Amino acid sequence: MRFALIAVGVLALAGCSGGDESRQASSLAGPGAFALRINTYLRTGQFDRAWEHLHPDQKRIVSQATLASCWTSTTDVLGDPKVRMNVVEIFEEPWRIPGTGLTRPSTAVTVEAVRPTQDGRKPVLETWTQHTFRTGAGWSWIVAAPFIEDVQKNAC
User: What domains appear along the chain, each with residue ranges and CATH number?
Assistant: First the structure.
């Protein structure tokens, strides 16, 4: 189950492929790269690094240990090292930060997970939108509402 929609992994593990070059170039900096980096932290178990960038309002709800515990209790297509992530769209959108009741301006990053095949095809396994937020001097991300609900119910 996908909980975050930053989502957001690091380009060393997640290459952009196919599509318009200008769109790809814009995804290599700013919120697109940030979303990919966070997804990479999560998929490689670097929960401390992911938590550092969690939105400050959600840090009050989700501890670093809880993030790790809940995330590792889910199955995810990103657990497959052959899966690559691509940024397919970036747009501005106000978004409610789950668990807080606050709506803030965000930059939405649509990410797709693909598993390249030997014949060159790149079937899309999953697509999600991660919301990133300008906080301080950088970006922050959020976990989705179902994740917060599980945390609040001690269900993970």
Answer: 21-152 (3.10.450)
The vertex-110 CA angle with 39 and 145, nearest 5°, equals: 70
58 pLDDT higher than 50: yes
Name the burial class of residue 135, with classes exposed (0-12), middle (13-18) and buried (19+) by CB atoms within 10 angstroms of its CB: middle
* pTM over 0.85, yes/no: no
* 67 vs 7, more confident: 67
Helices marked H in 1-144 — which ranges? 21-27, 31-43, 47-52, 56-59, 64-72
Q: What are residue 112's DSSP bridge partners?
A: 86, 127
| Closest-CA residue to 40 (of 84, 91, 98, 97) | 84
